[in-house]
């Protein structure tokens, strides 16, 4: 969504509503983006960089500063031949993580109308809707052949916003496509949602074969609620709702799922810190080995604030979500944003390197993965959350 020009300018005035670790001369969205770009972000089509590109896109929209648009153009142009073919594409590799960069292609298409971005996006669309294998119910496999019949929450963010945006831009009246976008969420809701807490487990295996799959309950779900998987999923819902047609009966279902998850996230916010625990299901918050993790905290903050901005909450509920987001944002700038030496750049701390359903998906696995500095899958969502916070403050 393009903002009116005056709002760009208001947003650029650093108005200081957001708690700062020190007097900031530029908004955190811009400061964190500049910090990472200054230190170097490789041009790749992998989802980690693509998640950062998504944050840069928000900054490009917010500031109208051409250098962010140039950064995206330069990065993506490195990946493509002049006719929009990806360099060095592995045609045997089918995984949803490959699709994430599609959102950046559609941004560049919208801004430049250069046919090569549409061509590359159309290629990715084909990889998804034609080449990607599906579960018997029609859910995209997370990765073929490695994770057969498995849907992971992560995959919804990797593919669904691109699928929705591509459909809206190129085939807006293709009802089959809209039904298909909806189905991906419906399957996850059906299999992964905990009936009591309304939180979503990391993934499910429709064939019930994975070591971690819930066979007794028949859902095939993995055992735990992992903060980042649910964070990807919340971002997927809020981003898809930007494109999904309001007249389609699925729109209200998506809004309902968004609200239900937002309510769960609000309930589960750690009252002491304002963040969320790596493993979120009971009885694990506060237990030995568990910790408040930064990438998921950034994703929830983004999802809630964008939901507020886009009017997705019921009358009278938005203010409560703003309070949740502000508290989380304060934690992020106090604990997860750190000054890096004398260069005036920021570091991003406290992001767990990875979380996979490759093994048995148990508590010990999640809590023994290392925490890394300057992870793009934490810093990118922090930038997106910062843009939302800055837009909110500019209006408040
Ligand atoms: C940036 O603006 C474009 C064009 O209006 C829009 O499609 C896209 O969703 C926006 N991106 C972000 C991250 O807000
Ligand atoms: C794009 O260009 C490359 C290199 O010239 C060529 O191999 C490929 O077939 C072209 N792709 C399309 C879709 O035209
Ligand atoms: C409509 O969308 C479906 C699902 O993505 C796709 O298989 C089909 O080819 C699309 N139809 C047209 C006319 O593009
Ligand atoms: C600054 O960031 C770089 C790149 O991440 C890192 O190698 C370096 O240790 C950081 N320096 C400080 C003082 O944090």
Automatic annotation (TrEMBL):
Alphabetically ordered keywords of this record: Hydrolase, Signal
Superkingdom field: Eukaryota
Annotated signal peptide: 1-24
GO biological process terms held by the UniProt record: carbohydrate metabolic process
Xref: InterPro entries: 6-hairpin_glycosidase_sf, 6hp_glycosidase-like_sf, Glyco_hydro_88, PolySaccharide_Degr_Enz
GO molecular function: hydrolase activity
Gene3D superfamilies: 1.50.10.10
SUPFAM superfamilies with a match to the protein in the record: Six-hairpin glycosidases
A Pfam family per the record: Glyco_hydro_88
Keyword Coiled coil: no
Protein name: Cell wall glycosyl hydrolase YteR
Organism: Lasiosphaeria hispida
